[in-house]
Design a protein that fits this description.
This protein is an alpha/beta fold. The protein has helices at 37-40, 55-60, 122-125, 157-167, 179-182, 186-198, and strands at 2-5, 8-12, 29-31, 51-53, 69-71, 78-80, 83-90, 98-105, 108-112, 131-135, 143-147, 150-154, 171-175, 203-206.
Length: 215
């Protein structure tokens, strides 16, 4: 996802399919949610702009030739490219601890969590959020399993919409979709997502390549 504002262009995540192609987007900064290859692998040859990640993610990317490395604190606002950015821990993976990003401007606030099994405190995490951009791996069937006290995998769209309802989030868009979603008829899947949102009072839809949203 690319955020574009008056003071900069911030790219969130950079998977292996962007390896060697990052400069096409002309980002002034890159944020990384976690160290899995489909979210960070595009940085294996470095980047021409500052890269922001948590300490846990920098351990995974330690040997990559990234010139300007910025360590993100947890749940503390940082100004990046004109956007007030907070990294919130989310449950998803043991070997690649993940965060979601709460990103705010004077016009509104979004929360971005493309891979998430659980939010520890959804109502608190999503406080003041206008737009939730979430994990589209599965629509209703859960892909979550437990490893001790930690949940790993992917929460369903239905579960994430429950979080939105509890947090008072009016709009949700789902990206990073799983194979079952991608291979289904677009109109049918879109209607399922909208229906799941309607019963929860949330305007819900699927993302698509090239989608542009004004916050």
């Amino acid at each position: 996802m690319l955020l574009s504002g008056r003071k900069g262009r911030v790219l969130i995540d950079c998977g292996e399919d962007w390896l060697g192609r990052i400069d096409r987007l002309r980002p002034t900064a890159i944020l990384v949610t976690h160290g899995h290859p489909d979210h960070a692998g595009g940085l294996k040859r470095g980047a021409a702009c500052p890269v922001y990640a948590t300490a846990a993610t920098w351990q995974i990317m330690a040997r990559w030739p990234v010139g300007v490395r910025c360590q993100l604190p947890l749940q503390r606002p940082v100004m990046i490219g004109g956007f007030v950015t907070e990294a919130w821990p989310v449950q998803h993976s043991l070997n690649a601890p993940a965060v979601g990003f709460k990103i705010c401007t004077s016009d509104g606030c979004l929360f971005y969590a493309p891979d998430v099994a659980a939010l520890d405190r959804p109502k608190r995490t999503l406080q003041s959020v206008d737009l939730y951009v979430g994990d589209g791996a599965v629509l209703v069937r859960s892909l979550v399993r437990s490893r001790g006290p930690v949940l790993i995998g992917h929460a369903s769209v239905a579960t994430q919409l429950d979080w939105c309802r509890s947090g008072g989030v009016a709009r949700a868009i789902f990206t990073h979709c799983g194979s079952g979603v991608v291979r289904s008829a677009p109109s049918r899947v879109e209607e399922v997502v909208r229906s799941l949102g309607r019963v929860r009072g949330v305007d819900a839809s699927l993302a698509h390549d090239g989608l542009t949203i004004r916050l």
